[in-house]
């Protein structure tokens, strides 16, 4: 993810990548070609000859010449790294999930307010063209009341990582991976009244139902499956007079007559739009209304409740977000 972000920042006018931190000597040299994870993107190579290099993130957050810090560390380091950056007067963009606990999220928000700095969590789907189209489909009301919504996100277990499979560091698949879809659900429909989730019987998976009285039937499924399982994400949202679905073949709009149209929403790459918006917020010192940290914190709480239900074998849990 660090490679995806630095690629986006490098295209923005008026932005200088002044310092980088990594425990990986190859990455510190500017060679990010070995990165990628499940994104399937080329990491690329960068000229870091004029960039300050730190092996320890603490030294980077202490650098007085930096205006903003982008945190792409393992999840258990999000809260301490964000705190260190905010306390030294830096704006912060932090990768999802925001943190491992609700208490850590609350502390990050409090520090951002105390020091009057921008804090934004990189919930990139809020900037993804297909998901922006979905937002309009749901909130516009053109096709009637939303009746059901299903979100799917899965991949093989992340064996490329030394920390992701350690739930004490990553929070597991629900918090690390399905946080995208849970944030979307909160963005589109608000907080559910109750939820329930069960394991699909694979490595770290869930099939969940989120209950909205007099509202749509909402489900989310996925997680980490057997090694080699290809990454896939998608959704199916049905209104009274139309249906929108994201499939491997693209975004499909199905109308009441039964005809299907393949859509190609216009808009910049999600990572580029996300980083550009963060920079805009920093330049104007305004809070990120498109992706406020308070809502990212609620997504973490929702993920933790869903994991609790899964551990309890699918018990329904009340949501108070």
Structure, described:
The chain has helices at residues 2-9, 25-28, 57-61, 78-87, 102-114, 129-140, 167-170, 172-176, 179-189, 270-284, 293-311; strands spanning 19-21, 52-54, 68-71, 91-95, 119-122, 146-156, 194-198, 204-211, 217-225, 232-239, 242-247, 250-255, 260-263, 317-318. The chain is built from eleven helices and 14 strands. It has 321 residues and is an alpha/beta fold. A nine-stranded mixed β-sheet has the order 13-12-11-10-6-9-8-7-14. A hairpin with a 2-residue loop joins strand 11 (242-247) and strand 12 (250-255). The two termini are 28 Å apart. It has two domains: 2-123, Rossmann fold (3-Layer(aba) Sandwich), CATH 3.40.50; 126-272 and 299-318, Dihydrodipicolinate Reductase, domain 2 (2-Layer Sandwich), CATH 3.30.360. The chain is 33% helix and 24% strand.
Order of strands across the widest beta sheet?
A: 13-12-11-10-6-9-8-7-14
Write the CATH fold name of the largest domain: Dihydrodipicolinate Reductase, domain 2
- Can you count the beta strands? 14
- Count of discrete structural domains: 2
Biggest sheet layout: 9 strands, mixed
Strand content: 15-25%
Q: How does the overall form come out from the CA principal axes?
A: globular
Which architecture of the largest domain does the CATH hierarchy give at level 2?
Answer: 2-Layer Sandwich
Order of helices and strands: HEHEHEHEHEHEHHHEEEEEEEHHE
Q: Indicate the percent of residues in helices.
A: 25-40%
The CATH homology group name of the largest domain: Dihydrodipicolinate Reductase, domain 2
Structural class: alpha/beta
Radius of gyration: 20 Å
Instruction: State the distance separating the first and last CA atoms.
Output: 28 Å
Number of helices: 11
